[in-house]
Specification:
The chain has 306 residues and is an alpha/beta fold. It has one domain: Glycosidases (TIM Barrel, Alpha-Beta Barrel), CATH 3.20.20.80. It is 39% helix and 15% strand. It has an eight-stranded parallel β-barrel, surrounded by five helices. A two-stranded antiparallel ribbon has the order 3-4. The radius of gyration is 19 Å and the shape is globular.
């Protein structure tokens, strides 16, 4: 009986995927957008308390457009998706909806094995439907793909090839084709330190937005600008999301200062970047450093971008 139910579920998910395949027309999204990454198990009521002063009203736009959450979606060793949404996310998502903030599920890189990822990316029928089912069951507005391939399950160095990037792009396109008809957007996290997720131009056509982790840091403005310019030059502007690291390592580097925050946001606004992805939002008195909120305000209140 259990195996029969499993087979029926697989057939149903495959049918969902087939229905949506090729329908990737994009999902409308507010612009400018400010998205935050957050682990819901880190006391989500504290999150709601923290963002309350920064939600929109009749005279001021919201500084929190969506919250991307690590809810338990991960990749198993055999390349299948474990898609049980945590109870914390089940409580957080309705709370976000009540204040007009979108909730997005993140497929995390808890299993970093390139072998597991290759198995996942070879499946363009069942796995997209698994993500769709998870998004629909949790009323998620988006799915974020945060896969960072390494050689030995997070113990090795970043690895992969351009062929892996092409395989990943094909899989992303299949996922987007399933999600978009339901009004669910697809984003992917990228960085040049990985030979797979560093392929900005190859991945961009397969998703609604490419979010770069490369721009989280930068010990100087010149270093940050080099990473930023390389990204902006490789991705269509409407697909670009610039990552910002809103935490402190206590080192006092340029990226964790008020001046650095203001300069990054101002540059993105001037270039018409439609989204800033801020990592990370945790309970009050920890992150983000308080100067991030005023730094983000001019961007959020600017005219609609690309």
């Amino acid at each position: 009986m259990a195996s029969d139910r499993g087979a029926s579920r697989a057939v149903m998910i495959a049918a969902l995927a087939a229905c949506g395949a090729g329908a990737a027309s994009g999902v409308p999204w507010p612009s400018p957008a400010v998205s935050w990454w957050y682990a819901a198990d880190n006391n989500w009521p504290a999150l709601m308390t923290q963002i309350a002063p920064y939600l929109g009203n009749a005279t001021s736009p919201s500084l929190v457009t969506s919250v991307m959450t690590y809810c338990g979606l991960t990749v198993a060793d055999n390349g299948t998706i474990i898609a049980s949404v945590s109870a914390a996310c089940g409580a957080l998502f309705p709370a976000l909806a009540r204040v007009g903030v979108r909730a997005e599920l993140a497929l995390d890189s808890g299993n970093c094995s390139i072998a597991a990822y290759r198995a996942l990316w070879s499946d363009v029928t069942v796995s997209p439907g698994v993500l769709l089912a998870a998004a629909l069951s949790s009323n998620a507005s988006g799915v974020n793909i945060d896969l960072e391939p390494q050689a030995d399950n997070c113990q090795g160095q970043p690895t992969g090839t351009t062929a892996d990037a092409a395989l990943f792009a094909t899989w992303l396109g299949a996922v987007r084709g399933v999600l978009n008809p339901h009004g669910i957007r697809l984003t992917v996290d990228t960085a040049t330190w990985s030979p797979v997720i560093g392929q900005y131009a190859a991945l961009a056509p397969s998703v609604d937005r490419v979010l770069t982790m490369e721009t989280y840091n930068g010990d100087s403005e010149a270093q940050w600008l080099a990473w930023y310019d390389a990204f902006i030059g490789a991705v269509p502007r409407a697909s670009a999301g610039v990552g910002l690291g809103a935490w402190s390592d206590g080192g006092g580097a340029w990226w964790e200062t008020a001046a650095g925050a203001a300069a990054k946001v101002a540059r993105a606004a001037a270039d018409g970047v439609p989204e800033l992805g801020v990592f990370r939002l945790l309970p009050p008195a920890q992150y983000p450093l308080p100067f991030w909120w005023p730094a983000l305000a001019p961007y959020a209140s600017s005219a609609a971008l690309v």
